[in-house]
Design brief:
Layout: E1 11-18, E2 21-32, E3 36-40, E4 43-44, E5 47-48, E6 56-63, E7 66-80, E8 83-89, E9 95-97, E10 105-117, E11 124-125, E12 147-156, E13 160-165, E14 174-179, E15 186-197, E16 207-217, H1 219-259, H2 261-264
């Protein structure tokens, strides 16, 4: 897909690998040509997100049912018609990207999930909310305390996670949590995109949530691949054992026929 064909106003995802973490950002396209795309300034609490020269930046865009990725982008801030925007200069052609191809592994691991309540929006958020400095109540602002609930990480991939909770949440709510692993606690933040009730008899949890990662520990990818390799190794060992058993059974049958030639006639 050609970068310049992205319609203005459409949303793109920006993935940033930095200092052992992967961040997911979103913004809307303001301008695009064959070598550059500009998006609405990505900012939080009045501060623009600052890209570093050592960041590994990729852009992902959904065109109907197809997703496209532009890796290895150079990012920065500029002005367009007097308004600050973020720009991304591409170095490689866009290639098709299938989020479903991200290998998903089952964990069924229990952990604690935390969130903050954003008083102005009523949403649960994964980062501590701060008021604007020009807010008249700024001086009386009290640091919010996060809430924690027990839940389960059902399965996980590089881009998303399925979690189970007993708390009813809304789409676009977000949580932070650690994924226990042999590599250590993998800090993560995720935003809910799908919700379903769990009706299975005897289930410990009432709700299942499909989430996309906002931030993950880069070691998560290694952890997933380690599990994948172990699963493939067990599959190969099982197949080899089954083949050995078939050969043993076949040899035993041949031996019986040799000992009783009349039975073979």
């Amino acid at each position: 897909m050609l970068l310049e064909t992205i319609p203005l106003g459409r949303t793109v995802e920006i993935y940033v690998d930095r200092e052992g973490y992967r961040y997911r950002l979103t913004s809307k396209v303001e301008y695009a040509d064959e070598k550059k795309v500009c998006v609405t300034l990505i900012a939080a609490r009045g501060r623009a997100f600052k890209f570093m020269p050592e960041d590994n930046v990729s852009i992902i865009y959904r065109d109907n049912e197809t997703m496209w990725e532009w890796p290895n982008c150079r990012a920065g801030i500029a002005k367009m018609e007097g308004v600050l925007i973020h720009y991304f200069e591409i170095s490689d052609k866009g290639k098709s990207f299938n989020r479903r191809n991200a290998y998903r592994v089952t964990l069924d691991t229990e952990t604690m999930f935390g969130f903050y309540m954003n008083a102005s929006t009523g949403m649960r958020v994964s980062e501590m909310p701060y008021p604007d400095t020009d807010d008249p109540d700024f001086l009386s602002y009290k640091t919010p305390v996060p809430e924690f609930v027990q839940g389960m990480v059902k399965d996980v991939s590089e881009t998303g996670v399925n979690i189970c909770l007993n708390v009813s949440m809304k789409t676009d709510d977000a949580v932070f949590f650690n994924i226990p692993s042999p590599l250590g606690e993998l800090k993560s933040k995720a935003q809910i995109v799908r919700k379903s009730e769990i009706n299975s008899k005897g289930s410990k949890y009432s709700y299942s949530y499909g989430c996309v990662f906002q931030q993950t520990d880069n070691r998560l990818i290694k952890y997933i691949y380690d599990i994948q390799r172990e699963m493939l190794k067990k599959q190969r060992e099982l197949q080899e054992r089954e083949e050995e058993l078939r050969m043993e059974i076949s040899a035993q049958k041949g031996q019986l026929v040799g000992e009783n030639p009349e039975s073979a006639e």
